[in-house]
Specification:
Strand content: 25-35%
CATH class of the largest domain: Alpha Beta
Structural class: alpha/beta
Mean pLDDT: 92
InterPro entries: AMP-bd_C, AMP-bd_C_sf, AMP-binding_CS, AMP-dep_synth/lig_dom, ANL_N_sf
Low-confidence stretches: none
Keywords: Ligase
Domain AMP-dependent synthetase/ligase: 16-368
Family: Belongs to the ATP-dependent AMP-binding enzyme family.
Domain AMP-binding enzyme C-terminal: 419-494
Number of domains: 3
Radius of gyration: 23 Å
Helix content: 25-40%
CATH superfamily of the largest domain: ANL, N-terminal domain
Largest sheet: 13 strands, mixed
Number of helices: 15
Strand order of the largest sheet: 2-1-10-9-11-12-13-14-15-20-19-17-16
Length: 506
C-alpha cells in the first residue's frame, strides 16, 4: 500500500512490531498488531456508513484504545479525524460537528445526553457509541467484531487533511485548524529528534488526546517509534505517581499545575521515579519552586512553545539548558524555523521584542472554511503569524514577552475572552463586559469578568456562573466577577485591557 500519511502507520507497525505492547489501558494491554487490526475494522465500519476520502469523522471520548483505532482507521480511508473536547457544552459540540460537516460521530456513552442536546443544530449523519452497546443498538465493540475487512489503496498526498482540531475562537466561535498528514508526521519527527524518543520508552498519557499537544507530541511520536503508551482517562496525582512506578514510565508530559500537584502529593517522597528520563512541560513557564522540587529528585524539564496551528510544537528547551536559559522556551525544532518580526514586518534583531512567526512542514495550511482568517494568519512569504510577542537572544533561544491576543492559559487550557464576553453581554442588566486573565498559584491564570451593569440590577459571581454554565466549558467560567462604574476604553471604543490587568491582575 502506497500511503504517504499516518494511515499507513498501523500497517507498518504491524509488520515491524506486531507483538510489542502499544497501549496499557487500565488492566488491559493492546499490542501493535491488535491496534492495527482494530484500525482496519474501523475503516471497514466507516466505509459501511458511507465515509470516504475527505469526509469528517468526529470522536468525543476519553483516552482509550478506541480513540486511536478510530483516528488511524479514518486516516486509512483518507477521511478527516475531528477530535472533540470532552469539556465542551452542547452548543460548542454542535458548532464543531456542523462546521466540520462530520458524517459520523463516535462518542463514549457518558456523553449521550450532551450529544442529544447538541444534535438539534448539528448535521451529523451517523452516531455510534463506544463499548458493547445493546442488542437494539450495538456499540462500537460489537460492530467492529462483525466488520468485514477489505484493504483499500487510497491515493493521498502529504498535504491532504488528516485532522481538524478546533481552537477556542477569538471572535466567539471556535476555528477548525486543518492539520495535514505531513503536518502530523513532521511534528512527530521533530519530537523524536529533540526529545530523544526511543522504542523502549514508556509514556504516561495523563492529558487528553483530543488536545493536539498530547496527540502530536505524545501519541504520534510514540507510535512512530513503536514505543508504549499508558493511557489514563484523566489526571489524578496519586494515581499518576503509582503508574510511573508500576510501569517503569520514562516519559511524562503536562502543564505546571500537573507537576505541582504531583510534587505536593503525600506519595511524592516515597514513589520510585528512577525510570523517568523525559519530562516535558508546556502551557506556561515552569515556576522555580517546581523546578527545585523535581531537581531534588534528580529530574529536569524540557520546556517548549507552540500552538494548534503548529501541530502544535515550535520550540524545545533541552533540560541541560533549563537553568542557563531560565525563562526561555528553547530553540526552534529541528525541522521548524522561528523568527521575530517588528511592527513593519521586517526581521527584528536579537533581543528586540516583536511578533513570533513560524514556518516549517509542521505548520498548518489554514482554517477550515475560513479563507479570510487563513490569509490574515500568514505573512506574504508564508510564515505563520502567531499573535504572540517575544524575542530571540544572541544564541537563538526564544523568550515569550506577552500576547497580542488576549488568550488566557488556565491549567493548560486556552481560553479566549471574546467568546465569554459575547455571552456575558446577553445577561440581563449587563451593559459592558471584559474578561481578563488573573494570576493563580494553582492554575497559572484564571478568568475574571469585569462588568458594568444597569442601575438597580444585582449581578455577582454566582449569577454569572449560573448563566454561563452549560453554554461554555466549565473551565472557562469566570472565577470572580467585579462590577465597575465604567470600563476604560480607547477613542475608538475598544476596552483597554492593559488598564484592567494593571488594576485587577496583580
Amino acid at each position: 500500500m502506497h500511503h504517504p500519511g499516518i494511515g499507513a502507520w498501523m500497517t507498518k507497525r504491524r509488520l515491524k512490531s506486531a507483538d510489542k505492547t502499544a497501549l496499557i489501558h487500565g488492566e488491559s494491554t493492546v499490542t501493535y498488531g491488535q491496534l492495527a487490526d482494530g484500525a482496519d475494522r474501523v475503516s471497514a465500519l466507516l466505509r459501511q456508513h458511507g465515509v470516504g476520502k475527505g469526509d469528517a469523522v468526529a470522536y468525543l471520548g476519553e483516552n482509550s484504545p478506541e480513540f486511536l483505532k478510530v483516528m488511524f482507521g479514518a486516516a486509512q480511508l483518507g477521511a478527516v479525524f475531528v477530535p472533540v473536547n470532552t469539556r465542551l457544552a452542547p452548543p460548542e459540540i454542535a458548532h464543531v460537528l456542523t462546521d466540520s460537516a462530520a458524517r459520523v460521530l463516535i462518542h463514549d456513552p457518558e456523553f449521550a445526553e450532551r450529544v442529544a442536546n447538541a444534535m438539534g443544530a448539528a448535521t451529523t449523519v451517523h452516531i455510534l457509541v463506544t463499548g458493547e452497546g445493546t442488542a437494539e443498538r450495538p456499540g462500537l465493540d460489537q460492530l467492529l467484531r462483525t466488520a468485514t475487512v477489505q484493504r483499500l489503496d487510497v491515493a493521498l498526498r502529504p498535504d491532504d487533511p488528516a485532522a481538524i482540531v478546533y481552537t477556542s475562537g477569538t471572535t466567539g466561535k471556535a476555528k477548525g485548524a486543518v492539520l495535514t498528514h505531513g503536518n502530523l508526521t513532521w511534528v512527530a519527527l521533530n519530537c523524536i529528534v529533540d526529545y530523544d524518543v526511543v522504542s523502549t520508552d514508556v509514556a504516561l498519557m495523563i492529558s487528553p488526546l483530543f488536545h493536539v499537544a498530547s496527540l502530536g507530541m505524545g501519541a504520534l511520536p510514540i507510535i512512530l517509534k513503536g514505543a508504549t503508551m499508558v493511557l489514563e482517562k484523566g489526571f489524578e496525582p496519586g494515581r499518576a505517581l503509582a503508574q510511573i512506578q508500576r510501569h517503569g514510565v520514562t516519559m511524562l508530559s503536562g502543564v505546571p499545575t500537573t507537576y505541582q500537584l504531583m510534587a505536593d502529593h503525600p506519595d511524592w517522597a516515597t514513589t520510585d521515579l528512577s525510570t523517568l528520563t523525559k519530562l516535558t512541560c508546556g502551557g506556561s513557564a515552569v515556576p522555580v519552586r517546581i523546578l527545585n522540587a523535581y531537581e531534588e529528585r534528580g529530574l529536569s524539564f524540557s520546556q517548549g512553545y507552540g500552538m494548534t496551528e503548529a501541530s502544535p510544537s515550535a520550540t524545545a528547551l533541552p533540560p541541560a539548558m533549563t537553568r542557563r536559559k531560565q525563562g526561555s522556551v528553547g530553540l526552534p525544532h529541528f525541522f521548524t524555523d522561528v523568527r521575530i518580526a517588528d511592527s513593519t514586518g521586517a526581521a527584528a534583531p536579537a533581543g528586540t521584542i516583536g511578533e513570533i512567526e513560524i514556518a516549517g512542514p509542521n505548520v498548518f495550511p489554514g482554517y477550515h472554511g475560513l479563507p479570510t482568517e487563513t490569509a490574515a494568519a500568514f505573512t506574504a512569504d508564508g510564515w505563520y503569524r502567531s499573535g504572540d510577542l517575544g524575542y530571540l537572544d544572541a544564541d537563538g533561544y526564544l523568550y515569550i514577552s506577552g500576547r497580542l491576543k488576549d488568550m488566557i492559559i488556565s491549567g493548560g487550557e486556552n481560553i479566549y475572552p471574546p467568546e465569554i464576553e459575547r455571552l456575558l453581554n446577553e445577561l440581563d442588566g449587563v451593559t459592558g463586559a471584559a474578561v481578563i486573565g488573573v494570576p493563580d498559584a494553582r492554575w497559572g491564570e484564571v478568568p475574571w469578568a469585569i462588568l458594568t451593569v444597569r442601575e438597580g440590577v444585582a449581578v455577582d459571581t454566582e449569577t454569572v456562573r449560573e448563566f454561563l454554565d452549560g453554554k461554555i466549558a466549565r473551565y472557562k467560567l469566570p472565577k470572580n466577577v467585579v462590577i465597575v462604574d465604567e470600563l476604560p476604553r480607547t477613542a475608538s471604543g475598544k476596552v483597554r485591557k492593559t488598564d484592567l490587568r494593571a488594576r485587577f491582575g496583580a
